[in-house]
Amino acid sequence: MEQCERIPTNPTDTRPSLTTTISVIVPVLNEVSNLPATLDRLVGVPGVEIWVVDGGSQDNTLEIARQYGVHVRSSVPGRAYQMNAGAQSATGEILLFLHGDTRLPTGFEHWIQETLSQPGVVAGAFALKIDGSGWKLRLVEWGVSQRSRWLHLPYGDQALFLTANLFWEMGGFQPLLIMEDFELVQRLNRRGRVAIVPVPVLTSSRRWQQLGVWRTTLLNQLIILGYFLGVPCDRLAHWYRQQKKCG
User: Fold this and answer.
1) Same domain assignment for residues 242 and 145
2) Which phi and psi angles does 94 have, rounded to 5°?
3) What is the pLDDT of residues 128-180, one digit of tens each?
4) How far apart are the C-alpha atoms of 20 and 12, rounded to whole Å?
5) Which domain, by its residues, includes 216?
6) CA–CA separation, 49 vs 21, rounded Å?
7) Torsion angles phi and psi, residue 123, rounded to 5
8) Are residues 228 and 136 in the same domain?
9) Separation CA 57–CA 59 (nearest Å)
10) What is the mean pLDDT of residues 94-123?
């Protein structure tokens, strides 16, 4: 496969001012421990509006979001539903979908604008760094890098972004209980190139810590295999949650 075109690797160079509005959509469910760090990277960035979309949190997630002064709305639970709801309320020309436990790099707004300005690029995502130590997590990061670079298949924890016009032209996220990010990226790849920004987002290591690195990786691959074999997504989601509970 054609290698992803890489954009300049020095985000500190002189850059043009942001010329498009970016709407960052953060689907959350009980993210009280992670949301402050996520919002710290967003609040006050010129040209960026923030939508926190809650799926029924039982902790103080909503209170924290309101303290930051961001836009808040509620939705039925499920990332696909929450992200579509946020996109419906958003006013930005570009939509960025960000998990509640993931922090964007400094200057993310310029990386996004530069990436989408490349010929043939229809969407983008960031490289991935996991907030934890140990060679096993570094190996996971390497695997994500290879998958993103050669297969053009970034996942939702890499902060997917695209224009609002294209998002709605494609019908948004499909109403799936799992694999909604994977399914959207597959459709995007049929429209053009999904580029990978060479600077990483920083995501929580909690899901790898919960089940262990090897078990989490195996579980993820089994879910993908089941998806390709045509197993209904509601069944995959149920099995995935049961495995997490067992961990």
Assistant:
1) no
2) -120, 140
3) 999 989 999 999 999 999 988 888 899 999 999 999 999 999 999 999 988 99
4) 19
5) 205-247
6) 8
7) -165, 175
8) no
9) 6
10) 97
Asked whether residue 11 is assigned to any structural domain, the reply reads: no
What's the burial of 12, exposed, middle or buried (CB within 10 Å: 0-12/13-18/19+)?
A: exposed
Task: Kindly write down the DSSP assignment for every residue of 33-94, as one continuous string.
Answer: TTHHHHHHTTTT-TTEEEEEEES--SSSHHHHHHHTT-EEEE--SSHHHHHHHHHHH---SE
pLDDT surpasses 60 at 11:
no
Same domain (yes/no): 128, 187: yes
Domain-embedded: residue 3: no
Written as six digits, the tokens of 35 are: 């949301």
Examine the domain organization and report whether 183 and 105 are in the same domain.
yes
Q: What is the CATH number of the domain that holds 74?
A: 3.90.550.10
70 neighbors 50 (Cβ within 8 angstroms)? yes
Rg (CA), the chain: 17
Each residue of 47-102: pLDDT tens digit?
Answer: 999 999 999 999 999 999 999 999 999 999 999 999 999 999 999 999 999 999 99
Residue type, 242: Q
Asked if 42 and 162 sit in the same domain, the reply is yes
